[in-house]
Specification:
Elements lengths: L2 H28 L10 H30 L8 H23 L4 H10 L2 H17 L3 H7 L1 H7 L1 H17 L4 H41 L4
Helix pairs in contact: 1-2, 1-3, 2-3, 2-8, 2-9, 3-5, 5-8, 6-7, 8-9
Length: about 220
């Protein structure tokens, strides 16, 4: 079995099931099969789903830097799946807030948005993720062309908004959102570094080519 088939038929199903584990554990805890949700089950459900949504956003953003560091291009084939799982957990986080916390009451929802602007930030991140998930197919990529890449640069904005949303939510104990912020800064910093290095190599290449042509006697 070649590498592409191994990724498609072995590693992708394995990663898919591993990504589903947090949701299955939450479901098991909800029905007290694998554990319990504690004294405030609604808050626990929201927190778990939100944390995993943010984690998968960062994991998806880590694919390209890891691919460049390790040189294993096969990592790129997992990025869409990881991005869709980020959307999946973030959407469930929003739905848990909408149905379990607010009970679909418009007055309570509007009051929450006005009093807690971090919800607006989180909702903006969800909208961007929704647009990215809706255009994640190969057909949409061909149809949109360059606009597809511009839209999916929104993953960086989602990462920033996700960390910002979490930071504002916790207010006092910022240790965990600070960890996410550091990881995000590292990932974005690596991307900037790779882009700078690539740009520098492009600038040096014409001079190198000119030198070789001069040595070979070409005008």
């Amino acid at each position: 079995m070649d590498t592409l088939k191994q990724i498609r038929f072995v590693w992708k199903p394995v990663v898919f099931l591993l990504c589903l584990v947090p949701a299955l554990l939450l479901l098991g805890d909800t029905f007290e099969i694998t554990g319990a949700l504690g004294a405030n089950p609604v808050e626990e459900i929201q927190d778990r789903l939100g944390n995993w949504g943010l984690r998968f956003i960062l994991i998806a953003l880590a694919v390209t830097p890891l691919r460049r560091i390790t040189g294993w291009n096969g990592l790129q084939r997992f990025r869409r799946m990881l991005g869709l799982y980020a959307f999946f957990y973030t959407l469930l986080h929003f739905l848990a807030w909408l149905f379990l916390d607010q009970g679909m009451l418009l007055s309570a929802i509007l009051e929450d948005i006005v009093k807690r602007p971090f919800i607006t930030i989180g909702f903006a991140a969800l909208l961007i993720l929704t647009a990215m998930a809706a255009t994640s197919t190969n057909g949409m990529r061909r149809r949109l062309g360059r606009r597809w890449q511009q839209l999916h640069y929104g993953a960086y904005v989602v990462g920033i908004l996700g960390v910002w949303h979490y930071w504002w939510q916790v207010k006092k104990d910022i240790r965990e959102p600070l960890i996410y912020a550091v990881i995000l800064a590292l990932l974005l910093g690596l991307r900037l570094w790779f882009r700078y290095r690539k740009s520098s190599q492009r600038q040096r290449k014409p001079k190198h080519t000119e030198t070789l042509e001069t040595r070979s006697g070409k005008p």
